[in-house]
Amino acid sequence: MLVSAVTLGFALLLAQVEDSPPAQPPTLVLQPARNPLPVQDAERLVVCLDLGPTKSVPSGKWRAQCDHEQRRCLITPSHELDAGGQETERPLERVRACVSEIHVPVPGESLKTYQMEPSIADAPPGWYRDERGRVMQFNFDLHRRIWLGGAWSPLQTPSKVLENRVRLDFGIALEVPSEKHLHRMRILETELFLGEPSFDTTLFRYDFSVERDEPLFRVTTFFGEPRRHDISINLGTWIEVLRVEELERGELEGGFLTWATVHATLDLWHSEDRVSFVRVRAGPSAERDYKNNVSTLVPGAVLEGDLTLDRDGFHHLRFGAEAEKVLLSGRVEGRPLRPERLKVYAGYELILLAINDQPLSLVADARGAWRNDIPQLPTRWEWSASAGLRFSLWAPARHTAPLADKARN
């Protein structure tokens, strides 16, 4: 009888266990959010954690960066959020791959017992991520880009007639830094003027800036304590290949094909990263005046500057003055035997906004030119001014772009 009673008791207990509902995983409890939200460290490990579905993050997929001493994790959803704070189907863009919780020293189940605090995922240098996880570029390198532009560019000709013109421009710019050099390239840099027709296009241009280790001169002054001043001569090279310039002034036309130009450059000043500079350069060009069927040698000298005025590449100033003299030319009726050209220019470019993370900028410049290499053209200065927009089809972040968390401070 006793055995029957014990057997019945175990059967009833077992039936209660089998009928009980399965245990539910604990609901995720987040710590109160700080304002502003902290940003995950771009140099520390990120773990993929499955913390179970919640109302705002049904997938339960999170990215966590944990401090094991404080038993605390900064977590952010693995997908972007909508305006209402609900998870979308768009995964976070431009994030580092996270490590599965089964491949970290601390078991995932232990990590899930840590305090969980809302945060923002890290972003690469030059990019910013908002509270919804969306990423956007805030730093732009306009020396590495593909651009298209247009501007209104009226011209006052030597005959003092004001011509209404439109300028279209296009080009590809590249920069490649190394330890001591900065290499610059321009490909298919082109300007086309409509109204008073003319165009100027260059197939390829290359130059570099360098920072020398050894000073050429060491100057010591003795006003008070002796002081040594190192003077370096930062020489470089500027090369241009296949440039075509053609212009019309009323019934007069000029057309010039420059086979190649080689200039030596001297940086009077350049920034620490060698991107901004003021320099002089000089050297010869081999040129063909195809309108008059003469080949010439054209030595020239240039003073020029290219300055990036802010950390994020929004403000750019360019200026220069150039002088050229045409030598070894055959006689052409209506112009001197050794014509000359003078040019001055100054321009400013400002990024206004970005479309799909590509910058749209405002461009304004002024130019002056004096030349007597076109037969019968009056030898007076002509002046032009331009104002327009330029869109970059590709413009990455600068080499010196800061991380997103540093940009927020």
Describe the structure.
This protein is mainly beta. The protein has two domains: about 45-135, no CATH class; about 145-405, Outer membrane phospholipase (ompla), Chain C. It has helices spanning about 1-20, 110, 405; strands at about 45-50, 60-65, 70-75, 80, 85-90, 100, 115-120, 125-130, 135, 145-150, 155, 160-165, 165-175, 180-195, 200-210, 215-220, 225-230, 235-250, 250-270, 275-290, 295-310, 315-325, 340-355, 360-370, 380-395. The longest helix has 18 residues, at about 1-20.
Tell me the number of helical segments per DSSP (H or I, 4 or more residues long). Answer: 3
Q: What shape does the CA trace take? A: elongated
Secondary-structure-based class equals mainly beta
The fraction of residues assigned to DSSP E strands is over 45%
Order of helices and strands, N to C? HEEEEEEHEEEEEEEEEEEEEEEEEEEH
- Please mark out the parts with pLDDT under 50 across 5 or more consecutive residues, or reply none: 1-24
Number of strands: 25
Q: Please name the CATH architecture of the largest domain.
A: Beta Barrel
How is the CATH topology of the largest domain named? Answer: Outer membrane phospholipase (ompla), Chain C
What proportion of the residues is helical, as a percent range? under 10%
Strand order of the largest sheet: 10-13-14-15-18-19-20-21-22-23-24-25
Distance between the termini: 81 Å
Question: What descriptors fit this protein?
Answer:
Outer membrane phospholipase (ompla), Chain C, twelve-stranded antiparallel β-barrel, 3 helices, 25 strands, 6% helix, elongated, disordered N terminus
